[in-house]
Design goal:
Blueprint (H helix, E strand, L loop, with lengths): L7 H9 L5 H11 L5 H10 L4 H6 L5 H26 L2
Helix pairs in contact: 1-3, 1-5, 2-3, 3-5
């Protein structure tokens, strides 16, 4: 992710969608090793909700509303991630 810093927040937020705390550990480890910018770390950890996504998506009746909530979280995480990259620097 270090080679393409402009797409790193997007990739980190996609990794953050994995419903488990392992994705948070992976994102944090990449940041600690210098492979990820602070904005990408911020985006990946903002979209991560642990097992909350599985609870949200388990009911088949409200899958449309759940996907809207998921999309809103994804977009907000990316906005704040890219804004952080602009302030702190890529």
């Amino acid at each position: 992710m270090i080679s393409n810093r402009y797409l790193a927040p997007l990739f980190a937020s996609i990794i953050g969608l994995i419903p488990n705390c392992a994705s948070s550990i992976l994102i944090t480890k990449l940041f600690a090793e210098g492979q990820l910018s602070f904005g990408a770390l911020f985006a990946g950890l903002l979209v991560n909700s642990g097992l909350g996504l599985t609870v949200l998506l388990k009911d088949k009746k409200t899958i449309g509303k759940a996907l809207i909530i998921l999309a809103i979280c994804f977009v907000i995480a990316n906005i704040f991630g890219y804004l952080t990259c602009l302030v702190v620097g890529f």
